[in-house]
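Example record

The entry below shows one chain as it appears in the dataset: sequence first, then structure tokens.
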Amino acid sequence: MAKPVFNCRIEEVPIIGNFVYSSFGRDTSAFAPYTDYDAPFPANFLSALNGVRAAALPVVLNNQMKQVTFNLLTDMYGVRAKVNDAEIYFFNAGSTLNVSPKDMGQSAVRRAVNRGDVEALVTAMIGMNQLIASNSNALIAKGFTLIKQNALVTTAGNLFRDNNIQNTLYEQKIDLAVTNMVLYNNFWSTYVGPVCLTGKLIFKVTNKSKAKEYTISALKGRIRADEKETWVFGKVTDVNNATISRAKVKLIPVDGGRTKTGYTDKGGNFKITGMRATDYNMVVTFGTMVKIIAITVVTRVHLEQNVQLS
């Protein structure tokens, strides 16, 4: 595997490349005395930048990740209501079960959902479904029909399937990063590095502000500053439009990055700052109520997303 020649995250390569290309385009006249930057260098720079953007996360793969993560989260958080319903039948069946009603596996399922641990959830659901199957007649006698029992089995199967698909897609993303390392390195060595070096030398005396725009550490700081000015905000209400305080708001990146979490205040308002520009699944929960919304965060945009829970 080729080692990166750049000192930043892979997903930052096209962002920094875009910063440098924009500065280069603005300062073309300053680069004019240096023949290395004559045509076709500008067009080749843009073509290489577009290639790196496309390689970072191909559209088809991104759309597949968006769909499967949405399905996975919908099933995972939907388990809560199904388990709450099943638990009523467990306790109604009481001593006719071959285990205590509290030991039918529902606690392990809830813990896994609360942690967002899909692998543990699948394992817990398999265990619970096995206990349900071994007590099927007793539960049916209390109204827990085979249709309801099979719905839990189907949900466990869907979670297992979608988790495997999600893992496969993440592996493809990692493999792409490895495969495309030569592409990233060439882009950096051929365009970003030389333009930055030349730009800093051109402006280091005459215009220190412009020189910073060709300094990688300053450009990385610019990315962090952009994230600080990028946030998601909104209000969470119930079906009667009453505000909900202490509702939990999770923003889960589709591409597998760090999840951001916040809570609504007394007025039902939330604001989650420091957002990276990418696609997210927004999961809002309060008690057994849950809402999952697919959103896209754009750099330096304050995205308003109000949510009504039911």
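Notes for this example: The chain has eleven helices and eight strands. Strands lie at 231-237, 248-253, 260-263, 269-272, 279-286, 289-296, 302-304, 307-308.
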